[in-house]
Amino acid sequence: MTGALPTAASLYERVRRVIPPVEWPAFTNDIEAILALKRDRNAVILAHNYQTPEIFHCVADIVGDSLALARKAATVEAQVIVVAGVHFMAETAKLLNPNKMVLIPDLGAGCSLADSITAEDVRLLRQRYPGVPVVTYVNTSAAVKAESDICCTSGNARAVVESLGVPRVIMVPDEYLAINVAADTDVEIIAWRGHCEVHERFTSADIRELRDAHPGVIILAHPECPPEIVAQAEFSGSTAAMLDYVEREKPVRVVLLTECSMSDNVAVAHPEIEFIRPCNLCPHMKRITLANIRAALEENRHEVRIAAGIAGRARRSVERMLSL
Ligand code: 13P
Ligand code: SF4
Questions:
Q1: Of 212, 259, 264, 292, which one has the fewest beta carbons inside 10 Å?
Q2: For the stretch 157-175, what's the b/e string if a residue is b when 16 or more beta carbons lie within 10 angstroms of its beta carbon?
Q3: What percent of the chain has pLDDT over 70?
Q4: Is the entire prediction scored with pTM above 0.85?
C-alpha cells in the first residue's frame, strides 16, 4: 500500500455521529499505528458488520456480512489478513488463502453456534439420515465444514438449500435459521439444536414494547432470531440485507434486531433515519479491539492454522457455496 495515510481528524468525520468527541482521543494512537502497520506489512483488515465503529469505519479495508467477507477474502492480494470478527470467520479466510498469514486478534472470539456442534455430531447425523446432504452454516469450525456437503450463510441459505435439487436436507447448527428457511421453501429441513446467544434473546414482548413506544417503527430481524420474532418483523435478512433494506426503503424509524454495533455502523451514513436501539451485544465480537488489532500486526498474533487433513475438505464446502 502506498500514499498518504488519512489524518485522525478526517477519520473522525466518518464516525462523529456515533463516537462522542470526548471518547475519540482514546482511539487515535492505535488507529494511526494500525494504518502505518498495514502499509508497512502489506496487510488488510476484514471487519464484520458487528465490529465497533472505530474499527469498522477507521481501520477496516473490507467490511460486510459473513458472505461478503468470505467472497472478498477469496480475492485479497495482501500477504497478511487480520480478521476483525470471530474465529470461524478467520478460519474461512485461511481456507481461502492457505498461503497467506491470517491473524485473529483474540483467540477467545468464538461463537455459540460454532460451539454447538462437532465433526462427530455431523458424522452421526449422516448415519441417522443416510444419503441426505448436509448444509452447514459458516458459523462452524473448519472440522465441521469438512464433514459437510456445502456451506451457507444467512444471506444465501435458501438458495443453497434449493441448489441441491433434493427433497430433504440436514441443516446445521442454527435451529432458528433452519426453521426460518423452511418457512420459505418446499425442501424439508432437518435441523440441529444450536442457537445464537445474541439473537435468541429477542422476545415477542420486546416487539410489543417497541411498537407501543415507537409508533410506526419498522422492525428488521436477523434470521438467527426465533421464528416468532421473524414472523412479526417487517423484514428478515442477513446483516448486509438489513443494510440494503434501510438504504432502499429509507424508513423514518427503524430497529435492527441484531447485534448492537450494526445500528451504529449503518447510522453513520444515515442521519435522516431514526435508529431505535434495543440490541444485544455479542461478547465474542466485542473481544476485538483496536489495541489487539495493533498487537496482532506488531506480533503476528494469533496465526490461524488448519490441519491439512481438514482444510482441503472444508475448503471444498466453502468454495461450493461461493461458486453458486
Ligand atoms: P451475517 O453477517 O452473515 O448476517 O451473520 C451474522 C452473524 O451473527 C455472524 O456471526
Ligand atoms: Fe456467533 Fe451470534 Fe456472536 Fe454471530 S452474533 S458471532 S452467531 S454468537
A1: 212
A2: bbebbbbeeeeebbbbbbb
A3: 99
A4: yes
Q: Is 51 in the pocket of ligand 2 (CB under 6 A)?
A: no
- Top mutation candidate among 67, 152, 238 for ligand 1, by most atoms within 8 Å of CB: 238
Q: Which three cell numbers stand for residue 51?
A: 465490529
Where do we find the cell 478460519? 91
Q: Does ligand 2 have an atom closer than 6 angstroms to the CB of 86?
A: yes
Residue 111, ligand 2, Cβ within 6 A: yes
CB of 97 within 6 A of ligand 1: the answer is no
pLDDT digits (tens, 9 = 90+) for 269-303: 999 999 998 889 999 999 999 999 999 999 999 99
134 — pLDDT class (breaks 50, 70, 90): very high
Q: Is the CB of 66 under 6 A from ligand 1?
A: yes
Distance 65 CA to ligand 1 centre (A): 6
Radius of gyration, alpha carbons of the chain: 20
Give yes or no for residue 141 CB within 6 A of ligand 1.
no
> Ligand 1 centroid to 66 CA: how many Å?
5
Q: What average pLDDT does this structure show over 84-95?
A: 98
pLDDT classification of 1: cutoffs 50, 70, 90: very low
CA nearest ligand 1 atom 4, residue: 238
Determine whether the annotation assigns residue 48 to a binding site: yes
Q: Which segments of the chain does DSSP mark as H helices, in order? A: 8-15, 25-41, 53-56, 66-73, 87-96, 119-128, 142-146, 157-163, 175-182, 204-213, 227-232, 239-249, 260-267, 290-299, 308-322
Whole-number pLDDT of residue 28: 97
| Domains, in order of start, for the chain | 8-111+285-299 (3.40.50.10800), 125-195 (3.40.50.10800), 199-276 (3.40.50.10800)
**In the predicted model, is pLDDT for residue 2 greater than 60?**
no
Spacing, Cα 266 to ligand 1 middle (Å)? 15
